[in-house]
Design goal:
The protein has 316 residues and is of the alpha+beta class. It has four helices and 20 strands. Strands 12-19-16-17-14-13-20 form a seven-stranded mixed beta barrel. The longest helix has 23 residues.
C-alpha cells in the first residue's frame, strides 16, 4: 500500500537496506545503509526483519505526507524530526495516521537518520537488495535519490507488535571525535615503521571529500616503503586505503569493489556506524586491535541485536 508522498526530498534521501551481497565479483558494490545499527534497530522497532528497506536521510531530511495508519520509527542522527509540527520521538515505535506530515530539519547530532515503516519500503529488488546505488542507477526508487512528488509503498506489516522504545543504554552517542578500532593489513608491510606509527598516533580530520563511497582524511601523511600501487584486489567495508600522497581514505558502503592502492588497515565492523554519523570537520584516531578482538566485538554486537529483538517482541 502507499505510505508516503514526498513533499520535499531533503538533501540526499534514498532507500537502503543491508546491501547487495554476492555480486562484487561482477563489479557491483554492496551499497546499503551507512549506519547498519540505526537501520537494524529501526526495523526491529516496527516489527520488520533486520534487513528491510528504510529511508536513509543525510544531513537535511525530507518532508513526507502519510497515507494510511501505520507504525514508524526514526533512529540514527537527530535531524529534528517532527510529526505535524510537534517533536517526533526517536528510537521508539510511533503510530502515525493518514494525513499526518513527518518532517525533518537540520542535524543536531550525527548526520544520517533512518525512517522505518512497518512492512518495509517496497521497491523492486535488484540482485537481492532494494538498496540504492546512485552512480549506476541501481535499486531503490528508479536508482536515484527521492524527489518531490515521489510516492512510496510498504510491504505487509506484522500484526500485534508492541510499541516499544529502545532502552537508553542501547542508544548511541554521536561525537565530533571518534576512536576507530582497526586491524592492520592487508598491506601494512608496504609501510615504513614510521608510517605505521604515524597512522596509529595521529588525529585525522574528515575532509570535504566525504560521501557514501568513502571519507578522505586530512592529517599527517603515512609513509610508504616503495610507492602506493599494487595489483588491484578486493576492498572490504572500512578498508583504509593510502594513495601516493599518504593521506588515508576510509572506504564505505558505496566503495568500489577493487582498488590498486595499498591498504594499511581495516576499521572494525562495529565501529563503522559511528563513523557513518561523523561529518566533515569531525576527527578520528585509530586504535590497533587483533583480528580475534575484532571477531569478539562482532559477536558481542550480534548478541546485542538478539537481546533487543527479544526485548521488543516479549509482549506479543
Amino acid at each position: 500500500m502507499e505510505v508516503f508522498e514526498v513533499i520535499q526530498p531533503g538533501f540526499l534521501t534514498t532507500v537502503q537496506d543491508r546491501g547487495r551481497h554476492g555480486y562484487q565479483q561482477y563489479g557491483v558494490p554492496v551499497s546499503g545503509a551507512m549506519d547498519s545499527y540505526a537501520l537494524t534497530t529501526a526495523n526491529l522497532l516496527v516489527g520488520n526483519g533486520d534487513g528491510a528497506a528504510c529511508l536513509e536521510m543525510t544531513v537535511l531530511g525530507p518532508r513526507l505526507r502519510v497515507f494510511g495508519d501505520m507504525v514508524v520509527a526514526v533512529t540514527g542522527a537527530d535531524l529534528s524530526p517532527t510529526l505535524n509540527s510537534s517533536p517526533l520521538a526517536m528510537w521508539e515505535a510511533v503510530k502515525v495516521c493518514s494525513g499526518d506530515t513527518i518532517s525533518f530539519g537540520h542535524p543536531r547530532k550525527g548526520c544520517r537518520g533512518y525512517l522505518a515503516v512497518a512492512g518495509g519500503i517496497d521497491v523492486p529488488e535488484v540482485m537481492g537488495s532494494r538498496s540504492t546505488y546512485i552512480l549506476s542507477r541501481l535499486g531503490g526508487l528508479e536508482g536515484r535519490q527521492l524527489r518531490s512528488g515521489d510516492r512510496l509503498r510498504s510491504g505487509r506489516a506484522r500484526a500485534g507488535m508492541p510499541l516499544k522504545k529502545l532502552p537508553p543504554q542501547y542508544i548511541p552517542e554521536y561525537q565530533a571525535r571518534n576512536e576507530l578500532r582497526v586491524v592492520l593489513g592487508p598491506q601494512d608491510d608496504y609501510f615504513t615503521e614510521k608510517g605505521i606509527h604515524t597512522f596509529l598516533h595521529s588525529e585525522y580530520m574528515i575532509s570535504v571529500q566525504a560521501d557514501r563511497m568513502g571519507y578522505r582524511l586530512e592529517g599527517p601523511p603515512i609513509e610508504h616503503k616503495a610507492g602506493a600501487d599494487i595489483v588491484s584486489d578486493g576492498i572490504p567495508a572500512g578498508a583504509v586505503q593510502v594513495p601516493g600522497d599518504g593521506l588515508p581514505i576510509i572506504l564505505l558502503a558505496d566503495r568500489q569493489t577493487t582498488g590498486g592502492y595499498v591498504k594499511v588497515a581495516t576499521v572494525s565492523t562495529v565501529d563503522l556506524p559511528k563513523l557513518a554519523q561523523a561529518e566533515m570537520g569531525h576527527r578520528v584516531r585509530f586504535l590497533q586491535i587483533s583480528q580475534e578482538e575484532a571477531y569478539q566485538l562482532l559477536t558481542e554486537y550480534e548478541r546485542t541485536i538478539d537481546a533487543l529483538r527479544q526485548y521488543i517482541e516479549q509482549d506479543r
